[in-house]
Specification:
Elements (H helix, E strand, L loop, with lengths): L6 E3 L5 E3 L2 E3 L5 H14 L3 E3 L7 H10 L8 E6 L6 H15 L6 E4 L7 H13 L6 E4 L3 H8 L8 E5 L7 H9 L3 E5 L11 H10 L3 H11 L3 E2 L6 H8 L8 H8 L11 H4 L1
Parallel strand pairs: 3-4, 4-5, 5-6, 6-7, 7-8, 8-9, 9-10
Antiparallel strand pairs: 1-2
């Protein structure tokens, strides 16, 4: 399938695809095969993390592909146990070695851990200034965490990856990120399949002759939100990428916005920390 990707420009000028493959809860050959299939399909953004324990397999797939490194966008994240200035720097070296890469396109603070997050961010700023990462960002940062960071940081996060879907439509966070030139990125955009039978979603899918998953992913892209659906199934990987040949009307985008139930699949960062 031809690469029809849409891209977003991060605040530092880096180009990031709006659609990528998430590889959470994939291990060994499953992860490696999923990335190979995704790259063959046209994906260029692969999102992993130290916590996922599959960086080696992601690196193997990248090496096996015939795609130029400059055309790929590889993300990984600092594990919670590795937060803090010195520990984060060492953790990055380990991740880079496992990925078998010369640099990472995006390195992120995985969770806003209370006593270490500001020191972790300082480490990421150093990696960015040294050119070892092309962009730095945060994950699971709601507005209070972003506001706290703004008082300490010399660099504004280029990306904020959070749980985001029509059923967890965090409009205030989206607006905040847009105002501060932080690219919002959605994980678990498909709610792990829990709302695929929603009659409202099925009606929209029928209208556009697309699957419910394709409607959700296209909705996110049209909001300007990068999205990283996870799948290790070839047909699903292809289905999730087939979202560049149609547009949802503004009226229907607004309708989908109204699906919000504040439904979280993952823990609420505000309640944990």
């Amino acid at each position: 399938m031809q690469n029809q990707q849409l891209f977003t420009s991060l605040s530092n000028g880096a180009q990031m695809p709006l659609l990528g493959l998430g590889v959470y809860d994939m291990y060994k050959k499953e992860a490696e095969q999923a990335v190979l299939w995704a790259l063959e399909t046209g994906y260029r953004l692969i999102d992993t993390a130290s916590m996922y324990r599959n960086e080696t397999e992601i690196g193997n797939a990248v090496k096996q592909s015939d795609i130029a490194r400059k055309d790929l966008f590889i993300t990984t994240k600092v594990n919670n146990d590795d937060q803090g200035y010195d520990k984060a720097l060492k953790a990055f070296d380990v991740s880079l070695q496992k990925l078998n890469l010369d640099y990472v396109d995006l390195y992120m603070v995985h969770w806003p851990i209370k006593f270490t997050r500001k020191f972790t961010w300082k480490a990421l700023e150093r990696l960015f200034h040294e050119g070892r990462v092309k962009a730095i960002g945060v994950a699971n940062y709601l507005i209070p965490f972003l506001e706290e960071l703004s008082k300490e940081a010399t660099e504004v996060p280029m990306v904020n990856q959070v749980e985001f879907s029509p059923y967890l439509y965090q409009e205030d966070l989206l607006k905040y990120c847009q105002e501060h030139k932080i690219q919002l990125q959605a994980y678990s955009p498909l709610v792990r399949g829990q709302r695929m039978a929603d009659p409202k979603l099925l009606n929209i899918a029928e209208k556009y002759q697309k699957t419910p998953a394709q409607i959700i992913l296209r909705w996110a892209i049209q909001l300007g939100v990068s999205t990283i659906p996870k799948s290790s199934n070839l047909e699903r990987i292809k289905e999730n990428f087939d979202v560049f040949d149609f547009e949802i009307s503004e009226q229907d985008i607004a309708y989908i916005n109204g699906f919000n139930e504040n439904l979280r699949i993952v823990d609420d960062p505000m309640e944990l920390l």
